[in-house]
Write a structure and sequence with these properties.
With about 550 residues, the chain is of the alpha/beta class. It has four domains: about 160 residues, 3-Layer(aba) Sandwich (Leucine Aminopeptidase, subunit E, domain 1), CATH 3.40.220; about 160 residues, YbiA-like (Tetracycline Repressor, domain 2, Orthogonal Bundle); about 70 residues, no CATH class; about 100 residues, no CATH class. Helix content is about 55%, strand content about 10%. About 10% of the residues have low confidence.
Length: about 550
């Protein structure tokens, strides 16, 4: 079965049928990966082969022999130079991967190795480069093509980011496979049709972050235009309860500045809208009951003209009943299923889903942290970035990250915001407090984190021990193994797990201020990987002990 793997290896050392060169349009020898491939293959022979081809368009790929390499072929793929993401770069990069794979399969290759195209001197943002690369490869395999794919990378932090991205893409792919095998699909669209309460146009008032909305469409469009600083449009949207007028006010004809915020909106729109959808169902018990009653059914917004929030097929067209016919992303259906799962789980665990507005709430410990600290906890990462990503790079964004969130709020309330927009800030606060409330409803984890590792027998846990060893080894590289072991043993006796978490957060922040370093990565590893895994391990320990 075909696979996608990320390995720490030089691409010139990979024993695949084909390796991919991050080429330029003229197919000349260059620097970086390109230069290394030319050198290993034999510069003169490879350049002569490239000269015969002469040119390759951006987003396309051509093939030459591998010459002195282990690989039989070199596929030369031309990725885009990054400008701002608004000049077709994503499509060009996606096509470069797809075309490379097509060329490989056409030439009988069973395996192929890629570098991360365009992410070097072409300047493509690393996270976006990984997402496009892995999505293109996953899409190619999902069409039934058979080829093993390797990404050859040498930098540990880039590898880690790639593995995280690959995991999320595989989860999405697995969900799609599940969707194709479900027994029941429930379609909805107009608010007057069956399950009309699932529509964003359905009139079901709710409050979010201190503001009252008539429907999710009003909330969504207000958030959208405010992101572009069109507060005049936002005011008009808030003054009408007609969803059709609201949609028109937030559309491209009225909101002509949309192109300037499209990249940010596309990145965070699902997260923003999910806040409103969740609040809507939390505050309207009757429609929550209808949502939960759908069980595990696949929910689909059958909007014929909407290929983003809907499936691109009208409810009156029977084709909507087969997932393979869909040509839309179904964002709203996905959000509804996520909210159904989350609220259903909380109710089953006897936890409250009653909405509490936190706009004017007193500061909790999380709110007294700096944004740079809080975002290191996985539960809060997306929440913080949904606000931070709208801020211009430089002093304004730095001031947000380096002040406590409580301090930022005080500055806003006293008209000393320092250029930080209030839009989105209180929505972020609402979500931070809601996440904190859900986490606090798990007393077992809280109680454990007040205890010391030795009390839970974690001294013999190789994963946790190795994590601490890595963290403190980076702190003082002159420390001997014996000294390191002694220090960790003392920590097991003196530090609580909560102390260790806070230490790691502070260590991440200090390292980040000094630049991206190995210390930064080890600290981030503890916060983002070790602590969540440790929580699961502790729950398992508790269950085992309760049985004995």
């Amino acid at each position: 079965m075909s696979s996608i793997k990320i390995k720490k290896i030089s691409i010139t050392d990979v024993a695949a049928d084909a390796i991919v060169n991050a080429a330029n349009e003229g197919l000349w020898a260059g620097g970086g990966v390109c230069g290394a491939i030319f050198k290993a293959a034999g510069h003169e022979k490879l350049q002569a082969a490239c000269d015969k081809i002469g040119h390759c368009d951006i987003g396309s790929a051509v093939i030459t022999p591998g010459f002195n390499l282990k690989a039989r072929y070199i596929i030369h793929a031309v990725g885009p130079r990054w400008t701002d993401g608004k000049h077709g770069e994503p499509d060009q990069l996606y096509n470069a991967y797809c075309r490379s794979l097509e060329v490989a399969v056409a030439n009988g290759c069973a395996s192929i190795a890629f570098p991360l195209i365009s992410a070097g001197i072409f300047g493509y943002p690393m996270d976006q480069a990984w997402n496009i690369a892995l999505s293109a490869c996953r899409d190619f395999l999902d069409k039934g093509n058979q080829i093993d794919i390797i990404f050859a990378v040498l930098n540990d932090s880039i590898i880690q980011l790639g593995k995280e991205t690959l995991k999320s893409i595989q989860i999405r792919s697995a969900k799609q496979t599940h969707y194709e095998s479900v027994n029941q699909i429930i379609g909805f669209h107009l608010k007057t049709e069956p399950h009309g309460c699932f529509s964003n146009w359905f009139q079901s008032g709710f409050t979010y972050a201190g503001i009252q909305y008539h429907c999710v469409e009003q909330y969504m469009m207000a958030q959208k235009v405010a992101l572009g600083q069109r507060y005049d449009l936002c005011e008009k949207i808030m003054k009408t309860d007609d969803p059709e007028k609201i949609k028109k006010l937030g559309g491209k004809d009225c909101f002509t500045e949309f192109a300037s915020i499209k990249a940010i909106w596309d990145k965070h729109c699902r997260h923003i809208v999910k806040r409103g959808v969740r609040a809507k169902f939390m505050q309207n018990p009757e429609i929550l009951k209808e949502l939960l009653a759908t069980g595990d059914a696949l929910l689909a917004e059958c909007a014929g003209q909407d290929k983003i929030w809907g499936i691109g097929i009208n409810l009156h067209n029977p084709d909507w009943k087969n997932v393979k016919n869909w040509n839309g992303s179904n964002y709203l259906g996905q959000i509804l299923m996520e909210v159904r799962e989350e609220l259903g789980k909380e109710l089953n665990e006897k936890r409250s889903v009653q909405y509490i507005d936190f706009r004017d709430a007193e500061a909790i410990p999380e709110w007294k942290m700096k944004a740079l600290q809080l975002k290191r906890f996985p539960q809060y990462y997306s929440c913080v970035h949904t606000y931070a990503d709208q801020l211009p790079a430089g002093d304004i964004r730095d001031s947000f990250y380096t002040c406590t969130l409580e301090g930022v709020e005080y500055a806003m309330r006293t008209n000393m915001g320092g250029g930080l927009p209030a839009f989105g800030f209180y929505e972020m606060k609402q979500e931070v407090y809601e996440i904190a409330r859900r986490l606090r409803n798990k007393p077992f984890v809280s109680d454990i984190f007040r205890q010391k590792p030795e009390q839970w027998g974690l001294r013999g846990d190789p994963y946790f021990w190795k994590t601490l060893e890595t963290r403190f080894a980076f702190e003082d590289i002159s420390m001997s193994e014996e000294e390191l072991s002694t220090k960790i043993s003392r920590i097991f006796k003196e530090k609580t797990l909560s102390d260790l978490t806070e230490d790691a957060v502070c260590y991440v922040e200090e390292s980040a201020q000094g630049g991206m370093s190995s210390g930064h990565l080890s600290g981030e590893w503890i916060v983002c990987e070790c602590i969540p895994m440790l929580q699961k391990r502790l729950r398992k320990l508790k269950n085992e002990r309760s049985k004995n």
